[in-house]
Specification:
- The protein has one domain.
- 38% of the residues lie in helices and 28% in strands.
- The chain has 4 helices and 8 strands, in the order βαβαβββαββαβ.
- The strands form 3 sheets. A 4-stranded antiparallel beta sheet has the order 2-1-8-5, with helices on both faces.
- The radius of gyration is 17 Å and the shape is globular.
- 26% of the residues are buried.
- The mean pLDDT is 92.
């Protein structure tokens, strides 16, 4: 199953300027890394679009909103308050969910023999909470030390 990578990079780190070198240097410079399941990101995507972000390495572009689903997103101290509140909200919701959670996924077009329907994604509650807690921990590091989180989409 595809996932989204989140890398915690120290504030003083300087990534390379070429697009390919930039991605590699983010991975090399990272002091923390987590993966979040794509289906979970998609489920939370409407609320994640409220987070002010940037799309590196083109940092001269105006502030964007949300995660770049296929590309890179920079999350810094200007983003973390909103992101932390959203993630904590989802954590509260998933903490009261049943042990096996069914989340509605993408709409799947049927063919002549099958009907169209929404995908059903089954998650273990503990796994969802583990992913959210890990992402919240990265956000806290940005708050404390001014580091940056780089999101790499699928």
């Amino acid at each position: 199953m595809p996932s989204h990578d989140f890398y915690l990079v120290p504030k003083v780190a300087v990534p390379k300027t070429s697009i390919v070198g930039f991605m590699d240097s983010i991975k090399e410079l990272a002091i923390g890394h987590i993966e979040v399941d794509d289906a979970l990101i998609l489920y939370m995507s409407d609320t994640l679009n409220w987070v002010p972000t940037k799309n590196p390495p083109f940092i001269n572009r105006p502030i964007e909103m949300g995660l770049d689903y296929y590309g890179m997103t920079k999350i810094d101290e200007n983003s973390v308050d909103t992101l932390k509140n959203i993630l904590n909200g989802w954590r509260v919701i998933f903490a009261i969910a049943p042990k096996n959670i069914t989340l509605t996924g993408m709409y799947i077009e049927g063919d002549e023999e099958e009907e169209s329907e929404y995908e059903k994604n089954i998650f273990d509650q503990v796994e969802i909470l583990k992913q959210l807690d890990a992402l919240i921990a990265l956000v806290v590091e940005v708050e404390k030390h001014g580091h940056t989180i780089y999101h790499m989409g699928i």
